[in-house]
UniProtKB/TrEMBL annotation:
A GO BP entry: methylation
Domain named Histidine-specific methyltransferase SAM-dependent: residues: 20-319
Alphabetized InterPro entries for the sequence: EgtD, EgtD_Methyltrsf_superfamily, MeTrfase_dom, MeTrfase_EgtD-like, SAM-dependent_MTases_sf
Keywords annotated in UniProt: Methyltransferase, Transferase
EC number: 2.1.1.44
The protein's enzyme class: transferase
Gene it is expressed from: egtD
GO MF, one annotated term: L-histidine N(alpha)-methyltransferase activity
Record-linked PANTHER family: ERGOTHIONEINE BIOSYNTHESIS PROTEIN 1
Protein name per its UniProtKB record: Histidine-specific methyltransferase EgtD
Source superkingdom: Bacteria
Origin organism lineage: Bacteria, Pseudomonadati, Planctomycetota, Planctomycetia, Pirellulales
Pfam families in alphabetical order: Methyltransf_33
Amino acid sequence: SPLPQSKLGTATADENEAEFRQDVLTGLSKKQKQLHCKYFYDERGSQLFDQICQLDSYYPTRTESQIMVDNADAIGQRIGSGAVLVEYGSGSSTKTRHLLDHLENQIAYIPVDISEDHLLSTAETLRSDYPHIDIHPIVADFTQGFELPEAYRSSPITVYFPGSTIGNLEPSAAVQLLGMISRQCDSHGGLLIGVDLDKDPQVLLDAYDDELGVTAAFNLNLLHRINRQLDADFQVDHFKHVAIYNAQQSRIEIYIESCIEQRVAIGETAFVFQRGERILTEYSHKYDVGGFAALAAQAGLSVDEVWTDPATYFAVMHFSA
Ligand code: AVJ
């Protein structure tokens, strides 16, 4: 008998919603209330994230893009010809275009993202812009692992993991994910990863708490999403976005703070928020090049080449398994 959909790697909408509900209820029941940052990216959240990437204060996107443009030939040579490119957290695949434009005999591009509609519409656009490349989107939470299509299992795999998304994970979880990547690209392929570097805390705070309030809207959209999808009654106006820099851990921490004491229902379950109580929604760890190379070494990856911008705000690093 055929396997249920979920066993084939495609969870149904109902299963996704049940998991979302369970994660939200579990996260808000903790002493330090928390919500997983992967839930930022519904259709509206993906749009807001694209707006963040265009903010003057959000330096990572344009800095990483410039590094890709300035070093396109060297990066292309590292990846080599005939490569299959697997992108973790591909979003709108904007930076990937710099690679697709520079790779020789590229056979396939496999964007992996949790935001299904956004992923599939991006894939359609890429198909018409790059008709010679096989575009094979996979809807998945890449931290949970996923299978590559049969056809590419013997090709050299380059995992592309831009945007410093790795920074969302605490270092121990980052090592685990890098280990999975190392097994996926094995000895013929490699990892090309974008890593945000530690810097003046004020530059970081400006990037994660912008004047226009786009990051605040992005963060608070999570409450709107919970209201919409999980029959909740968050009064979003009574919550605010907070970003702090934790110097001990070299990371930005993002919270949603309750402005008053209030009670919120999520379906049948009620939660009380004290005035000033915070929900942790995201970590964004910052590294230095040597520290990140040491972390990756714990996962069996060795650094081949590192490209940075003149201000050393950001690094693009190539590793081999
Ligand atoms: C997508 C995880 C790389 O940490 O900079 C941007 C997300 N959050 N502004 C980051 C984010 C708030 C972003 N990453």
